[in-house]
């Protein structure tokens, strides 16, 4: 019996010891579990946080993608503009080349024209010299012609007077002949009277007495004939055709 008790006690002691150990281990495990829970919780909260970050990042990525699309469109549009501008530049360079060619041609033409203008100016100066010389010669010739003309006119005037004198002398001869032919003194007297009357009568109208003189040629007529001629613009001497003006015909007084 004693032995059994002792064994039982011993066993109880071992079991109690074991129980204590178990409890100790249990509390240690609980401690560990708590720590794990804490760690788990920490991990959970970190995961939530990272999920949020991920979502934000995704949204941001979408926004950026949209921006990329927009920018790609803009870049395409800019590229088109650039291509158009390049095309324009090509066209403009072509026209610049054309214009430069034309400019070169025009400059050549201008040089030619310049040379021609210089030559023309030279020949114009030469011609001017010639012209001046010819002018001087012409002036001399005109002077000579004027001198000769006035000399000729003087000669013509003298000739006319001489012809009139000849006519007068012829009339005198006629009269002498008539006097010779007519026997009586009365007939001679009558002839002489007729001649003096004719001498005193206006040769233009053959009616009125001579009472006016032309101071250009000194031919004598009646005043009415000269005034009529002046007023009807036939302003020339009836005998010699010399032109006369308002101050060239004057009244003549043959008083007895
Ligand atoms: Zn008259
Ligand atoms: Zn006259």
From TrEMBL:
<feature type="coiled-coil region">
    <location>
        <begin position="152"/>
        <end position="179"/>
    </location>
</feature>
<comment type="similarity">
    <text>Belongs to the BRE1 family.</text>
</comment>
<keyword id="KW-0862">Zinc</keyword>
<comment type="pathway">
    <text>Protein modification; protein ubiquitination.</text>
</comment>
<protein>
    <recommendedName>
        <fullName>E3 ubiquitin protein ligase</fullName>
        <ecNumber>2.3.2.27</ecNumber>
    </recommendedName>
</protein>
<keyword id="KW-0479">Metal-binding</keyword>
<dbReference type="GO" id="GO:0008270">
    <property type="term" value="F:zinc ion binding"/>
</dbReference>
<dbReference type="InterPro" id="IPR001841">
    <property type="entry name" value="Znf_RING"/>
</dbReference>
<dbReference type="InterPro" id="IPR018957">
    <property type="entry name" value="Znf_C3HC4_RING-type"/>
</dbReference>
<dbReference type="GO" id="GO:0005634">
    <property type="term" value="C:nucleus"/>
</dbReference>
<dbReference type="InterPro" id="IPR013956">
    <property type="entry name" value="E3_ubiquit_lig_Bre1"/>
</dbReference>
<feature type="coiled-coil region">
    <location>
        <begin position="68"/>
        <end position="102"/>
    </location>
</feature>
<keyword id="KW-0863">Zinc-finger</keyword>
<keyword id="KW-0808">Transferase</keyword>
<dbReference type="GO" id="GO:0006325">
    <property type="term" value="P:chromatin organization"/>
</dbReference>
<keyword id="KW-0833">Ubl conjugation pathway</keyword>
<dbReference type="InterPro" id="IPR013083">
    <property type="entry name" value="Znf_RING/FYVE/PHD"/>
</dbReference>
<keyword id="KW-0539">Nucleus</keyword>
<dbReference type="InterPro" id="IPR017907">
    <property type="entry name" value="Znf_RING_CS"/>
</dbReference>
<keyword id="KW-0156">Chromatin regulator</keyword>
<dbReference type="GO" id="GO:0061630">
    <property type="term" value="F:ubiquitin protein ligase activity"/>
</dbReference>
<keyword id="KW-0175">Coiled coil</keyword>
<feature type="domain" description="RING-type">
    <location>
        <begin position="202"/>
        <end position="241"/>
    </location>
</feature>
<dbReference type="GO" id="GO:0033503">
    <property type="term" value="C:HULC complex"/>
</dbReference>
<dbReference type="GO" id="GO:0016567">
    <property type="term" value="P:protein ubiquitination"/>
</dbReference>
<dbReference type="Pfam" id="PF00097">
    <property type="entry name" value="zf-C3HC4"/>
</dbReference>
């Amino acid at each position: 019996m004693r032995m059994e008790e002792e064994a039982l006690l011993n066993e109880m002691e071992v079991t109690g010891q074991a129980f204590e150990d178990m409890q100790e281990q249990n509390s240690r495990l609980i401690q560990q579990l708590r720590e794990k829970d804490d760690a788990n919780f920490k991990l959970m909260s970190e995961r939530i946080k990272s999920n949020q970050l991920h979502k934000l990042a995704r949204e941001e990525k979408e926004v950026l993608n949209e921006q990329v699309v927009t920018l790609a469109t803009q870049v395409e549009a800019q590229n088109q503009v650039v291509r158009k501008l390049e095309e324009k530049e090509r066209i403009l360079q072509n026209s610049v080349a054309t214009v430069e060619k034309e400019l070169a041609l025009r400059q050549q033409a201008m040089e030619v024209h310049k040379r021609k203008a210089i030559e023309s100016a030279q020949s114009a100066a030469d011609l001017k010299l010639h012209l001046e010389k010819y002018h001087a010669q012409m002036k001399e010739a005109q002077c000579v012609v004027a001198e000769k003309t006035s000399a000729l006119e003087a000669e013509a005037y003298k000739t006319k007077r001489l012809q009139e004198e000849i006519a007068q002398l012829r009339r005198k001869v006629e009269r002498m002949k008539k006097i010779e032919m007519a026997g009586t003194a009365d007939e001679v007297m009558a002839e002489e009277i007729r001649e003096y009357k004719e001498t005193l009568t206006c040769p233009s109208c053959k009616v009125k007495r001579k009472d006016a003189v032309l101071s250009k040629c000194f031919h004598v007529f009646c005043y009415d004939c000269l005034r009529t001629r002046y007023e009807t613009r036939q302003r020339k001497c009836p005998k010699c055709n010399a032109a006369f003006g308002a101050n060239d015909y004057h009244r003549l007084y043959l008083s007895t």
